[in-house]
Structure formats: C-alpha cells, structure tokens
Amino acid sequence: MTTAVNSAPDAAGKLSGGRMFVMKCGGSTLAELPDSFFGDLVKLQESGVQPVIVHGGGPAISENLGKLGIESKFVNGLRYTSEEVLDVVEMVLSGSINKMIVRRIAKSGGKALGLSGVDGGLLQAKPVAASHEVGLVGEVTGVNADLVAGVLNLGYMPVIAPVGAGPDGQRYNINADTAAGAVASELGVSRMIVVTDVPGIMKTVNGEKRVLETITVQQIEDMILAGEIYGGMIPKVRAAVDCISGKVKEVVIVNGAEPGVLGKVLSGEKIGTKIVRMQ
Q1: What is the pTM assigned to this prediction?
Q2: Where is this chain's protein located in or outside the cell (predicted)?
Q3: Chain-centroid distance, C-alpha 40
Q4: Binding-site residues, please?
Q5: CA distances from 39 to 33, 43, 104, 110, 161 (A)
Q6: Binding-site residues from annotation for substrate
Q7: Do 178 and 251 meet the contact criterion of CB atoms below 8 Å apart?
Q8: Which residues contact 153 (CB under 8 A, 6 or more apart)?
Q9: What CA–CA distance (Å, rounded) separates 160 from 170?
Q10: CA–CA separation, 131 vs 224, rounded Å?
C-alpha cells in the first residue's frame, strides 16, 4: 500500500525543501564512514530534505557467526541463511548495527528512528526463487509506506534493517540492496543513493580501471555476462535495475568517504556511477 508523504520530491527533481530520497548503506562501509557523513545527513534533514535509510551489516554478521562457530557461506553474492544464521542476522541488523546508526545521527544533532522490516509489517516477504540454494532469504512482496510516511511526518529519519516476514510469520533475511530498491519504488522517490566503499561501477578501458559516469540497464547485463560485474556487486546492480524499472528515475552508486557526497549527488554534481533506463 502506498501512501503519499508530505513533502514528496518535486516534479522538477531540484534540491528543495521537503525533498525525499532513499539511501542504502553497505555493511562494509558503515564502520568506515566519518562523522562528517552523518553531519551532512543532519544538515540535509534540517534543510527540509527527508532521508530514508536502509542498511546492511555483512561484516558484523560474519564476525558474530565466526565467534559462535557457525559457518558463513555465500551463493551468488547472497548469504546462505538457516534459522541458526537468521537468529544472528536479526540480532546484528535489527540490534547493534541499526542502533549504532541511530546513535551516530543523534550524536550529530539529528533525529532518527530505527526499525526492523518486521516492525509493523514494514517489509513483507516471501522466499526467493533460489531458496533451495540460499535458505531463508526473502524477496520483498510489499512495503508498509504508511509507516514510513508516519515516521517522516514526525520529523524522524527512518533507519530500516532488512529483515522481513511472510504472512505466516516466517522471518527472512533480505538483501539490503533489494530492500532499499523496494522501499524506493514503493515511496516513488526520484532517486536512490547506494553508499558503498567503492567509487562506483568500474570498467577496464585500455588496461586501466575507470569509474563509469553513467550506465544503462542493458550495459549492466552485458557486464555481468562478461564477468566485469561479479560477486557482491551483482545484487547491488540487480536491485538498482529492479528499482529503476519502477518509479525511480535513477540510482547513484557512490563512495561514502567522499566529502559532502550526499549533497553533491542531490545537487546534480557528477559523482559515482548513475544507473539509468537508457541514454
């Protein structure tokens, strides 16, 4: 169910009061993000921009699984998830990682509210098609946009942990990129920002790796087939493609360590890799 959020993005896509965007932050990036990144988030919030954050937490999950002697296994970039693994996933994502982000935003003077995708039916899910290979990994079937709208209208940044549940109450581990794409499409925002620890999608040109300024959906498919996009980057770009096929006009992949990166993206500066439907 989609609910219009007060202060939605303006049709012209200009940075203005009340602009909303969805930001996905990778688990491998979170620990390295400087305080200034969260300060920039707060400045955007204070200026009337409405960030919606969906986060991962892969390294912390792997670390905790290791401490407990539970094997970590990945299939096509997705973590194999048993009930035992899922207990740790939920503990880390909905607990320590989610609250760490909320604390860092608060420390910078902002207002944030941490949510699990299980809360209020925020992320409704079903098993992915390859569940026989990856276990309890889910795909999003619905987003409770009313809940996101309510949090935003109270003046808080929603910080969403990508754990969802099916109608039978079964929990699912949802890839954070996939969850962010579903949230962005449901909210109808014009732009999704994927914050990573890389400067964008790289392509080897004349023996040198370069960041692609813009790439189309078809070019992404070609690069996956050629093996130039592989591993954990595949779910990132797949989620972007799924998102773009909905209401989102563009997805930008950027390095979170770049000073002022969010403001640069929102003001239209050329940074990172912009994924679009077509050129």
Answers
A1: 0.87
A2: Cytoplasm
A3: 18
A4: 57-58, 79, 173
A5: 11, 6, 9, 8, 21
A6: 57-58, 79, 173
A7: no
A8: 5, 6
A9: 18
A10: 22
pLDDT value for 246: 67
Q: Is 99 exposed, middle or buried (0-12, 13-18, 19+ CB in 10 A)?
A: middle
Does residue 155 come out as left (phi exceeding 0), alpha (psi in the -120 to 50 range) or beta? left
Tokens 């579903």 -> residue: 182
Tokens coding 195:
């914050």
Pick the CATH number of 20-276 from 3.90.1150.10, 3.40.1160.10, 3.40.50.300, 3.30.930.10: 3.40.1160.10
Tell me the two tokens of residue 268.
Answer: 């239209």
Do residues 155 and 112 touch, judged by C-beta distance below 8 A?
A: no
pLDDT tens by residue, the chain, 279 residues: 444 344 443 333 333 334 889 999 987 787 789 999 999 999 999 999 999 999 999 889 999 999 999 988 888 778 899 999 999 999 999 999 999 999 999 999 999 999 999 999 999 999 999 899 999 999 999 999 999 999 999 999 999 999 999 999 999 999 888 899 899 989 988 788 999 888 888 888 888 888 899 999 889 989 999 888 888 778 778 777 777 766 777 899 999 888 999 999 988 888 999 998 775
The first and second tokens of residue 20, run together, are: 């909303």
Q: What DSSP string describes 201-251?
A: -EEEETTEEEE-SEEEHHHHHHHHHTTSS-TTHHHHHHHHHHHHTTT--EE
Which of 21, 161, 33, 57 has the alpha carbon at shortest distance from 108?
33
- Structure-token pair, residue 253: 């992949």
